Amino acid sequence: MEFRLIDRIRERTALAREDVRLGIGDDAAVLAVPPGQHLAVAIDTLVEGVHFPHGTSPRDIGWKALAVNLSDLAAMGATPAWALLALTLPRADPAYVDDLAEGFAQLAREHGVALVGGDTTHGPLCLSVAVHGFVPPGQALDRGGARVGDVVFVTGSLGGAAGGLRLVQGKVPFDPADESHRALRTRLDRPTPRVRTGMALRGHANACIDVSDGLLADLGHVCAASGVGAELDLDALPLSPALRGVFGNAAARELALSGGDDYELCFTVAPASVGAMHAALAEVGGHATRIGLITEGHGVRAIGGAPLAGARSGWDHFHP
Known about the structure:
alpha+beta, 25% strand, 12 strands
């Protein structure tokens, strides 16, 4: 049964790439890194009830398992190429695997990602995905390059996924007929990895991170790695109309600061490079909102205010 499940996944995720010399079906994949490129590698594990709610559709699970990893590559400015999938299932359900593989494949095709190997086993529902991408030498984005005076930007909108989770948890009754409710649930189940934006930021951004654990936590990681502080303009945080409409302005801002699973990019740019950065993003259909400045010191604070930190500063897997 295990090999039949692997065959089903392979059939639904097949994508030809010249740099895949040997893919699924052997003891290991054989892959060719293009000349003049460095290899960027990331891995994330998604566990049912922790990273996605019980009852999430298998197509959404397959999509999200790849999306959160592509977001890591985006934060490095890398071009995605290959993926590995380790899938743990409570039972051998071919129809479930078909749907999960189709959700995975839908996003993989969009970004030209080939699934080149993996494993299946029995146990509680869990997916581990490893992704590999290419970045020119010296052009990888990282967390440690922010400089005092840099402008802080974020892509998309913040807090929507956390709002969707609150709906799932029943903290606000979920109404499937409500367009705003559906939009927030989609933000939770099907995040959009900002891959093209990440590549466009090469040569423009000094530091970058994807917002997976919450803006405060993730911008805090940039500050710690760079040895700087940051000031946020709380009125500038990009909040979707759906989030404001369902939760109100105050709660929406809290979700934007501390909620996770947005998978937007937060990055810093020297003032002199801001115009070129916006032009580069426009070429790929991207957009970013200015939300603050990098300062001397440490930690993240509101402009003219106290540090924004504490128990609600972001997701921690061991202290959720």
